[in-house]
Design goal:
Number of domains of chain A: 2
CATH architecture of the largest domain in chain A: 3-Layer(aba) Sandwich
Number of helices of chain B: 10
Largest interface: A-B, 28 and 23 residues
Strand order of the largest sheet of chain A: 5-6-7-3-8-9
Shape of chain B: globular
Low-confidence stretches of chain B: none
Distance between the termini of chain A: 43 Å
Oligomer: heterodimer
Largest sheet of chain A: 6 strands, mixed
Distance between the termini of chain B: 31 Å
Order of helices and strands of chain B: HHHHHHHHHH
Radius of gyration of chain B: 18 Å
Structural class of chain A: alpha/beta
Number of strands of chain A: 13
Radius of gyration of chain A: 24 Å
Helix content of chain B: over 70%
Low-confidence stretches of chain A: 1-16
């Protein structure tokens, strides 16, 4: 989604969104959710909440129960136990009422093969009491030029955008996106991310499941990692990274004297020299930096060349958490 | 808009979309029509003119309505069953379930499109039957023709819906449909007006809706044919059974 298009569409969308009463937060509330199939316990007491207007991302390895959790929230599955409220409604009790206010992008879901783009979006609009205008939906997902194309002739990226248009047809307050960019090329992914960010600016609440950690890092206001049927960690990206106790990496070009061993690194810092570069891994970024710069100054090294500080990424945190739990 | 009005208008829109989609796949539409029409011409050109053996009924008054029955069965049972199985396999039905669209409105729309196809086939067969073989319905036989079509679509449509739920994959729906109705169609004499079977087999075939539908339509063409009251009950019973099974077992994914 380009910015110009977003700007064109945004006023209308914002108007419609403002008309709908904002649900009292939290939008989703899950307490001690359990789910079992026969003897197999898939969810063992899941707790989290999603606040109005945020992008919430559910992460976890395959088979962790992400899809099961989302399907319970959408009213497709009956839970075994626990409390669930979505937009103030129990999805198990009133799925029909809930569906007027939510939009769902399912994983790998087909279209009627011979339908055309615009006519399909149009009939989807007819299913909902307060749909968005057709032109806005087409513009939002950049399918205006393909409006008369038959669905079976669309590319993978176009189909995924049509998925999104259908999910948005009813002007939902809450949108579920199940792996929305799987199989996208980098350009299509960025477009999809821009579209999702645009939805957030319109006040929509978004629940996203994904395999891509950079996607979660880029989009999520808050996230939760689901593993072994429980939420292992939840919070903002930074909180999650910190909880995983990941260390910061400080790198710089190793001065010649450090490389040939005639100068030792500062005491108490774990500095590893490899080729031209030196890397210091630490939990205390600020003091380690101070110490390094003082050491460089005292030894006449000047400013350290190519000095950079890398915070732990979500990917580092995720991999560490998941491997820790698997080891247990 | 009241709930019922909304359901009807949504079903009509859905039917329109389905019907447009049907005609867009030209090959599929062509052969859906070509099969009954080809059979009509083939049977018409190989059946001797005049009364059928041991009766006062002209051959064309039997084979034309028989082919109409065949067309209705192909459209409502085989095509609908395969179509629903494909929609389920592709995830379209699951996608419909994510919306507030009611199951009744959606399925009525799909069935409505099926009915339109069945009526179009009927019209083609009837017109060619009249022009090429001189078979025209009796003026007083219209209730049988119209009632037979409505009940035929309802009965085979509900059975098609049930079939789509029995088939484990989209690919198996068509073979299951063909294997279940074709033997009955042959035993019922749909493709040969002079066909005769032993008494016990005829009684067995009479329990099924294929011959029942054909005989109701035949009665619309010639009063000398079998009076269709029993056939009416057979069709109604199968419609009820089909609806009950489809309601019980219909799956959205």
């Amino acid at each position: 989604m380009t910015n110009t298009l977003a700007a064109e569409v945004a006023p209308d969308l914002a108007e419609v969104a403002a008309d709908a009463p904002r649900p009292a937060p939290p939008t989703i509330e899950v307490r001690d959710l359990t789910m079992g199939y026969g003897d197999r316990q898939v969810l063992r007491g899941v707790d989290f909440e999603v606040r109005a207007g945020e992008v919430f991302c559910l992460l976890g390895p395959n088979g962790a129960g992400k899809t099961t959790t989302v399907e319970i929230l959408e009213g497709f599955r009956q839970r075994t136990g626990g409390t669930v409220r979505v937009l103030g409604v129990d999805p198990a009790a009133q799925p029909a009422r809930l569906r007027e206010r939510i939009g769902i992008v399912l994983q790998e879901c087909g279209f009627p093969r011979q339908a055309r783009v615009a006519e399909l979006i149009d009939i989807w609009r007819a299913y909902y009491p307060n749909p968005l205008p057709l032109a806005d939906l087409l513009a939002l997902v950049e399918l205006t030029e393909d409006r008369n194309a038959q669905v079976r002739r669309l590319s993978g990226g176009q189909r995924r955008r049509l998925d999104l248009a259908l999910a948005l047809a009813g002007n939902p307050d809450l949108i579920f996106l199940d792996e929305p960019t799987t199989g996208f090329d980098p350009e299509s992914r960025r477009r999809c991310w821009a579209a999702i960010e645009n939805l957030r600016t319109l006040g929509k609440t978004i629940v996203l499941t994904t395999h891509y950690l950079d996607e979660a890092e880029r989009l999520a206001d808050r996230l939760a990692i689901l593993q072994g049927g429980r939420i292992q960690v939840a919070g903002t990206v930074r909180q999650v990274a910190r909880q995983a106790a990941c260390d910061t990496r400080i790198t710089f070009t190793a001065p010649r004297r450090l490389r040939d061993g005639s100068l030792l690194p500062p005491d108490g810092l774990d500095v590893v020299v490899s080729g031209d570069s030196a890397t210091c891994v630490t939990c205390h970024t600020a003091s380690a930096l101070r110490e390094l710069l003082a050491w460089a100054h005292v030894n006449g090294l000047g400013d350290l060349d190519d000095l950079s500080v890398e915070n732990p990424t979500l990917e580092d945190a995720y991999l560490q958490l998941v491997s820790e739990r698997e080891a247990q | 808009m009241s709930g019922l009005n909304r359901t009807i208008s949504l079903a009509a829109r859905q039917a329109l979309l389905e019907q447009r989609s049907f005609w867009r796949s030209a090959e599929y539409a062509l052969f859906t029509f070509a099969l009954p029409l080809a059979l009509l011409l083939l049977i018409g050109s190989t059946t001797a003119t005049g009364d059928l053996p041991h009766t006062h009924v002209e051959g064309q008054m039997v084979f034309v309505p028989s082919i109409i029955a065949f067309g209705v069965i192909v459209a409502a049972y085989v095509n609908l069953g395969a179509k629903l199985a494909t929609l389920r396999h592709d995830g379209v039905l699951k996608r419909i379930r994510t919306t507030p669209m009611s199951a009744t409105a959606y399925l009525s729309g799909v069935l409505g499109s099926t009915a339109a196809t069945a009526i179009a086939i009927t019209a083609c067969v009837a017109v060619i039957g009249a022009l090429a073989f001189g078979a025209t319905p009796r003026a007083s036989g219209l209730p049988e023709i119209i009632g037979g079509l409505v009940l035929g679509v309802a009965c085979f449509g509900s059975l098609g819906m049930a079939l789509s739920s029995v088939a484990r994959s989209a690919e198996s729906a068509s073979p299951i449909a063909n294997a279940s109705y074709l033997p009955l169609a042959i035993m019922s004499g749909l493709f040969d007006p002079a066909f005769s079977v032993p008494h016990w087999l005829s009684a067995a075939v009479g329990v099924f809706p294929v011959r029942a539908l054909a005989q109701i339509l035949e009665h619309g063409y010639t009063p000398a044919a079998h009076a269709p009251l029993t056939d009416l009950f057979v069709l109604l019973a199968w419609t009820a059974a089909g609806c009950a099974f489809a309601t019980w077992r219909f799956r959205w994914h």
